[in-house]
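Anyone opening a protein record will find just a pair of labelled lines. A complete record is shown below as an example.
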Amino acid sequence: MGTASVSAVRPTWPCKELVTERACQQQRAPVDYHKHANAGQLEERKLREIAHSRVGRSILQGYERDSDTNPAEEPPNIKYYSVAQSSEEYFFEWLRQRCKGVKALDYCCGSGKNGIFMAKCGADVIGIDISPDGIEKVSLNARQEGVTPNCIFRVMDGEAMDFQDNTFDLIVESGALHHLDFQRAVSELRRVVKPSGEILCIEALRHNPFIHLYRMKTMYLRTQWDVEHILGVEHLDMARNYFGEVSAKFFHLFVLAAVPFRKTRIFTPLRQFLTRVDETILRKPIIGKYAWIMIFTLSKPKKV
C-alpha cells in the first residue's frame, strides 16, 4: 500500500501538548487508585491504569506525537516520535481507505484522535475507554472538532464490553493491548467485530533489549504491568487462535539513530534514508521483531 503525506492522513488538533514541571511532579506523587465510580467492581491493575492515564493527561495535552519544541521540559520519550512518520502514515492511510460508511469502534480510545479521524473520514464511530476522566475530555475534543453527530464516547471496560455480537465493521486499537489481559481483550474483539470486519492495531514491541532497557529506566512514564506486558511476535500466534487472518508490518529500528539529529538540517534526509533501510530489513519477523513498532491486522474472526 502506498502512503500519502502526513498532512493528508493524520488528524490535526487545535492545540499542542503542554509540558510542565508541576505535571511531572504529579506523575511521581502518590495516587489514590480507588477514586473511581466503579472501584469496587474493577481489578486493582485496572484502577492503577486509570490513575496512570489521569496523570499522563496532566503531562500531555493534545496530539502527543506532534511536538518536540522544548527539550528542557519535554518527557524523554517524546523525542522518539520524531522518527515515527512512516508508521503513522501507514496507520492513518489504512484507516482512511476503509472508513466511509462503516460502523467503527475506537477501542480504548485514549485521546480519541483515531475515532475523531475515522468520523471525519465518514465512519459512524463509538469510542470506549475505562477512564471516566478520559471520556469526559475526549467527548469535549469531539465537540470541538464538530464530529459529535457521528462520534460518541462511552466509559466501558475493553475486556468486558457491553456491545452485542457482530456490531462493528472496523475496529482500531492504538497502544492499549499491553495495558490489558491480551487473551480477554482479543476474545472480546473477536466477539464484537462482524464476520467480514477488520481490526487494525498498533503496538510497541518488547524484543529489542536496548529499547526495553530504556523502558526500565523510565518507569515513571509507565506502570509495572505495562512493562511486563509489552507485546511480542508470539502474541500474533495467540491472536491466530481467535482470527483466521493475522498479518503484521514492522517499523523503526535503524531510523532511531536519527533521533539525536532531530534539530539539525540533516535530520530529514537522514530519517528518510534510514526509513528506507528499515523498510528493506524489517520485512521478515525474525528481524522485524527487534523494531520499535508493530502494526497488525486481524480479520476472519473464528466465531464461537
About this structure: The first strand starts at residue 103 and ends at 107.
